[in-house]
Amino acid sequence: MEPETRDGPPRTVLIAALVVAAGTLIAILVIAALRVQPSAQQAVAIVSIPAPQAESAQCRALAGALPEQLGDYRRAPVAEPAPAGAAAWRSDGGGEPIILRCGLDRPAEFVVGTPLQGVDAVQWFEVRDVDRSTWFAVDRPVYVALTLPQGTGPTPIQAVSAVVAKTLPVKAVDPAPVG
Known about the structure:
There is one protein chain. It is elongated and about 105 Å long. The protein has an eight-stranded antiparallel sheet with strand order 1-2-3-4-8-7-6-5. The chain has a domain at 57-167: Protein Transport Mog1p, Chain A. The longest helix has 26 residues, at 11-36. It contains three helices and eight strands. A hairpin with a 2-residue loop joins strand 1 (69-70) and strand 2. The protein starts with 10 loop residues before the first helix and ends in a 12-residue tail after the last helix. With 179 residues, the protein is of the alpha+beta class. This is DUF3515 domain-containing protein.
């Protein structure tokens, strides 16, 4: 009787190689699927500040008209307890969010002679901080504040200005007296 000759590796080695290859393929597909699915937005904590008109009809109308996206920022959930009249957007890369507040008191810095900037028919007053700026819409029946992280660019304020202009009627600018 002649000894059996085999061409190639033993059967168990072939089966093991197929199992490893299939497992690797499945792992690659799972990783790819996880990268494609958008991650759940982390809730944004917004500190409560006085906003006596936050529950007004004007602020509710504005909140209902706000876009889901402001440039590279997507609407994010607001952590509870969420202040009335507030909304947030966060970039996919994380970082500081954009925060909108409606129904605030007139900003203390907004006095006669303060320079204003018009964006899409809305008059804004800017208060700068080290790493952000807050823009106040000052020609509407309620004050609207939009806080932007440094380097945000013009798209968010342009998008919000368009919504403010469509949603809230124009009112005469009313700065505080100097002094």
